[in-house]
Write a structure and sequence with these properties.
Number of helices: 15
Strand order of the largest sheet: 7-6-15-16-17-14-18
CATH architecture of the largest domain: 3-Layer(bba) Sandwich
Helix content: 25-40%
Number of strands: 19
Structural class: alpha/beta
Bound molecules: flavin-adenine dinucleotide
Radius of gyration: 22 Å
Shape: globular
Length: 487
């Protein structure tokens, strides 16, 4: 029975672990933290269960990645579907409900952006093709000759309708009459789901993520971490190992293959194959001198990913009675998004009593931020770092107050987190989160690392971020590992 060691119990690592276990592998997952899920984990603090990063769970529709995974493994997610609006977008002059059902959604976009109908038709058509491709056995980007030869098998007649859009940016699909509020509405969604705004986001990928509200959005009982906790439960009950407090500090490499992982608890795990649920930067650090030249070159050449500034808040539920749990705010549609100008807020559902002490709710508020300024201040000017943290806290609270009046008064506990906090808790260098901006399908990162029995899994590889995205990526990696180890 081949043995695989997986570094990290994020959604990517756990999904690949479960799939390989199902195929008969011996599986050991080594997780540095005390709980699973990484950026999509849920942590306890003062009686609250706070979502560490991810809050919006999509991809639970009939053909969605989480549903497919549950079918393969025979597990049941502890979730309830959101049936009304997946989230609400608050622009300075407009409030737009992201309805789950197509008809109310059509009425909503026609009321707010009457000129946008042709755009949404095109978006829907492209999204349908992309979702269809991504849920079939379509090896993209092809990493081997075998995969290149298999590509045409994934194509159907209607797939060809997407071909002219392959080199295009989403901006090219926007209507001529586009006003700053419509562009900000589209860009805010692209930024959270493709890590790029319409000027840069790939047209096909962008169309797909604009469909997210209508692709099986659910509440995960007890918080987002429930996805990872369910996977760990499944792995353990099927004979796999998922060990916490085991941070991998070093990998032994011999003749182009990894032979063992060493943890901070002096555990040495030998295996036939290894998976890093890591960014390329983190993997390069772990490999040290043994990092292949291609990997070293890659991390030097690449721009950093985005970071996140977050607030975790404990709210008096008698003040914040809002039943819709997810809210997105753009403060000024003429300014760049992120850095407090666009904020995503998620409240725990009113009826989820596992998330907070009685009479309270949790909230996770986040905004995209560039990691480099935070890193420099943290290392060189701690006072300025603290000042910046206070300033960003104010920005995010201002945004919250706009969407949910009374937020400041209701907030009995407010804990800010910077990219440095993410670096500390998720071990992602510089606190870079959310994967690479999806600017071109031709630049998609494959799981390969330059070492024969070591692959990457998680949001650095195609199709990138979100629990649904990393689940799709992990399905592909599990197949690749099984194929390549057999050959
Ligand atoms: C603020 C924020 C908001 C987001 N919002 C959403 C959202 O609403 N919906 C959504 O679907 N997605 C969202 N995302 C993105 C989503 O959370 C991620 O894309 C996804 O969870 C990443 O999963 P991953 O498999 O790449 O692993 P990660 O989450 O990066 O987990 C990796 C794991 O590996 C562990 N690890 C790292 N190094 C080591 C080591 N050396 N040894 C042992 N263990 C190690 C870490 O502790 C961690 O648990 C958000 C992300 C952030 C940061």
């Amino acid at each position: 029975m081949p043995h695989i060691a997986i570094i990290g119990a994020g959604i990517g690592g756990l999904t690949a672990a479960a799939l390989l276990l199902k195929q008969g592998w011996q599986v050991t997952v080594l997780e540095a933290a005390a709980y699973p899920g990484g950026c999509a984990g849920t942590f306890f603090h003062q009686g609250y269960r706070f979502d560490a990063g991810a809050t919006l769970a999509g991809g639970f529709d009939a053909n969605g990645p989480h549903t497919k995974l549950a079918d393969i493994l025979g597990l049941t997610w502890q979730v309830s579907p959101i049936r009304d609006a997946a989230w609400v977008v608050h622009l300075p002059e407009k409030t737009i409900y992201q309805y789950v059902e197509p008809n109310p959604w059509r009425n909503e976009y026609l009321t707010n952006f009457p000129y946008s109908e042709a755009f949404w038709h095109k978006q829907e058509q492209l999204a349908k093709i992309s979702w269809d491709i991504s849920t079939r056995d379509f090896p993209f980007p092809p990493a081997t000759l075998n995969e290149t030869l298999r590509l045409p098998l994934g194509l159907r007649l209607d797939t060809f309708a997407a071909v002219p859009y392959l080199p295009r940016k989403l901006r090219g699909l926007l209507p001529r009459q586009t006003q700053p509020d419509f562009k900000a509405f589209i860009d805010a969604q692209l930024l959270i789901s493709a890590q790029a705004i319409s000027d840069d986001a790939d047209a096909l990928y962008g169309s797909t993520v604009l469909d997210l509200p209508r692709r099986g959005v659910v509440h995960v009982h007890g918080g987002m971490g429930g996805i990872a906790e369910t996977l760990v439960g499944w792995i353990r009950s099927h004979g796999g190992q998922a060990l916490y407090h085991q941070q991998v500090k070093r990998l032994d490499v011999k003749n182009g293959r990894v032979i063992a992982a060493h943890t901070n608890q002096s555990l040495r795990v030998e295996a036939d194959a290894f998976l890093g649920n890591l960014t390329p930067w983190a993997l390069t650090r772990l490999l040290g001198e043994a990092a292949p030249t291609s990997l070293r070159r890659e991390v030097k050449r690449r721009h950093p990913m985005w970071g996140a500034f977050v607030l975790h808040a404990g709210l008096d539920a008698s003040i914040i009675r809002q039943p819709i749990t997810h809210h997105q705010i753009v403060m000024d549609v003429n300014k760049k998004l992120g850095e407090g100008n666009s904020v995503f807020i998620s409240l725990s559902p009113l009826n989820d009593d596992k998330r907070a002490p009685q009479g309270f709710r949790t909230a996770t508020l986040s905004t995209h931020t560039s990691v480099t300024a935070w890193d420099q201040l943290y290392k060189q000017n701690p006072a300025a770092y603290e000042e910046r943290k206070a300033e960003y806290t104010e920005r995010v609270l201002n945004a919250a107050e706009r969407a949910l009046p009374g937020f400041r008064k209701a907030a009995k506990l407010v804990m800010p987190g910077t990219p440095h906090t993410y670096e500390f808790y998720t071990r992602r260098p510089l606190g870079m989160v959310g994967g690479f901006p999806q600017t071109s399908l031709f630049h998609a990162r494959s799981p390969r690392t330059g070492l024969r029995n070591l692959w990457l899994v998680g949001d650095s590889i195609f199709p990138g971020q979100s629990t649904a995205g990393v689940t799709l990526g992990a399905m592909r990696v599990a197949r690749l590992v099984a194929d390549e180890t057999r050959n």
